[in-house]
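Hi V.,

You were right to ask for the full record rather than a summary. Here it is.
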Amino acid sequence: MNILALDTSGVTASIAILRDEMVLAENFLNLGRNHSEILLPSIDQLLTATGLELRAIDLFACTVGPGSFTGIRIGVSTVKGLALAMDRPIAGLSALEVLAMNAMGWPGKICPMIDARREQVYAGLYADNGTELLMNIIPERLDRATDFLELIAGETVFIGTGAVKYGDSIRRKLGGRCHFLIDHIQQIHASAVGVLAGRKALAGGLTDAVRLMPLYLRRSEAEEKINRQC
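Predicted structure:
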């Protein structure tokens, strides 16, 4: 199965093409540019590099959030358009679950944290139970970093931009029970999106271009402004 996977849920963008769980090609971009400028050219570049045409892709996959409103919209709309044109299924994945995949094999709990600004994080809690999919212990949520830490007990590895930003608070709260991954695997990589998408496909967790929806967890600034005016 050929999989085209992407992540645009944060400040970085990543695109990958996989054959089952073998990564054929991957781009990871941290250029501070709008995802809309680089996404389609990067897809074309990877298709050329792998010698594949778009119609050879069997499954499209993307993160649906939580994360950047603009980034999520770009990623979801791109995948919806490609899947609709090719009449292919889609795997829409939680950015937190994909991020937690970077720590698979860790014997304790896995806490992905994405900085949501305003002293808040998007966070969840997972564990590797020896299967191909992580076990979700605390569903993804928007919370103050310090409040979410109250829910965590035991040895836990933290990962993501929120873990980096609030590392000192985590260490003060959990002491020797907290652990951190090295810097270059603190971001979401499209190869992990593709691997998880393939596993979700085998478990029947696919959707289509009509039903794929973003996962925001927070209202946009425009929606909050309208709500305050009402």
